[in-house]
Here is the input.
Amino acid sequence: MAKFFNSLRDGVGFDLILVGAAMVFLLALAGLPLVYNVLMSFQQVDMFTLGQLIRPFAGISNYVAVVQQPEFWMVTRNTLVFVVGSMAGQFVLGFALAVFFAQKFPGAATIRGLFLVSWVMPGLVVGAIWSWILAGDFGVLNSILRGLGIIQSNIFWKSDPSFSIWAVIIANIWLGLAFNMLLLSVGLAAIPRDLYEAAELDGANAWQRFWTITLPMMRSTIGAVLSLGLIGTLQQFDLFPALTEGGPANTSNVAGYWSWQLSFQLYDFAKGATVSVMMFVLVLFASILYVRSTRHEVRG
Amino acid sequence: MKLTKLGLAAGIALGALMVAGPAMAQVTLKIWSIDGVDRVGIADTFSKEFDEQNEDIVVEYRGIAFDDLVNETLRAFATGNAPDIVSFDNPDFAMFSSRGAMLDITDRIAASEVIKAENYFEGPMNSVTWDGKYFGIPKYTDTIGVFYNKDLFAKAGITEPPKTWAQLTEYAEKLTDPANNVYGATFSARAGEEGTFQFLPIIQMSGGGYDNVNTDGAAEVLDLWKKMIDNGWASRDVLSLGQWDSTGTFNSGNAAMAISGPWEIDRMVEDAKFDWGVALLPTITEGGDRSSALGGFDWGIMSTTKHPDEAFRALEYFAAQDHRIFEEFGNIPARSDIELPVTGVALKDEALKVFQEQLQYAQPRGPHPEWQKISKAIFDAMQQALTGQMSAKDALDQAQATIKGITG
Here is the structure.
């Protein structure tokens, strides 16, 4: 008995308790809702069966119905454009800023810190601000572009089907930029200075140093940033209701917002669940990538 | 001495018991609505009054944000915690009444001294009717018409507000003045209920309905709307602006006509620095069929209530206050037997007269248990046509196919 308690305090038992607590937490708060969601996607759900667990089985008919929706392919295409566009913008600009602020100049650290303001802001607030900036007739962005002579007539960012998804992407890049920059800054700071000094002595120019030292040393950080970026982008919700509501005619609708619309605006909970299960498979893929890239990091 | 003290204490205790006595027999009514969340409204005010005036009833009022009301009620109903009385936006009502979630009050209305079905406008009453039975009563109503800037009309040499949609388009062209940032017209064609709210009346006046959307007349007007947007007679942002923001551009003098409803009047009296008026929604051909949107909320008792008698008493109290709602909250009663008081503000009184006439033509959205899906099919089609992704006819045909799949 004493041995058992000893093991609980300092031994395998203690490890099991720690792991167990984390697992219970994870299962209760993430696992159960997830299983429930998957279950719902195979059932017929309406307001009378909302509170029940056992409902009429629907097979894959929900999945078939979702794919047959006229907007399905447009939403899929938009989701891809949104994810790739947002991630590319956040990553490239974030990396550029991280490298810039890694240079030693007065106030570098302070200004870098100020960038966090954008990340701290709630998505709905950011959405509302960008909604004014991107407004068609009296928006600031249009005034600037017209003043610079880039455009002749106003661009209706939120109402023109060829620009609507980009309106959300622009706002999302701004929102996620600081987070990307911060993670990449940490990665940059972890690269030993002497590597650069040695390379410089050997005559490597700035571009060569970036290409042969910075990038390879940042491999795992970049992997993590991109995976988190993918998850964050797929999760992005607040900007959509604040900017375009997925319109006009679904041209800026993405899977996450569509799933919410189906569940909580059209009260078609089964289809909403189905779309989110489809998204989950995508995020799962990204999570595996993320776990792999961080595992690499731990083992050095 | 000691005994008297004890007796006194006992007396006090007994007295307290007697005071607390009636409380034992009290009935608790749970009332949910969107009022009182951001500003004082009908439901929170009258619930409090009803609570104070009735010793035997305790009202637990809860204000819920507009966007959450239906979801919250669905959840509560599914888990057996539904409120006794709830107030829904009229197109949402049928989802609940058609599935037996609302109490049939047909007989109670027939027996009531206060609530008389014939006093209500037909449209609002239809929205609480399902299968020939009454499941609630209208709380207030509203509709849409055309606000027009009389100063700009005079400048352009136009004397009368437009009677047909073709005329509205023609006037919009004349009134557009890019140099002064003036669009001819503004409306709300956004991807949401507001979009359907403004477009469904066109379908209805062309002889169609929510279950018959691909009429020639509707396609014709849709093409006119598209023409206004493409030619810059209306801002392209009508596709994303809600009615409140859209009419804001009218108030600031940046649009010469605006399609919106009576909820705009108070702000317009304050903000608009020009002479304006309201006209009935145009028709498709001169003298053709009229229609307009029907807005407003309904009261209903949920079928799970344990106190239907007390709940109906509450509804009777609310209905008895209908004559106060215009003055106190700016809402129009959905009743033909109530004369709206004259406010003395000429513009406001004029506008209200027009909206009261317009209300006679207002038709409800639905009622249909899956209204939200039908509504999405309609505003999707409208947006597809207006953005040029499909021709008006094709978009409406596609919507018709989707709607047929829903209505069966």
Notes: Residues 8 and 15 of chain A are 8 Å apart (CA to CA). The mean pLDDT of chain A is 88.
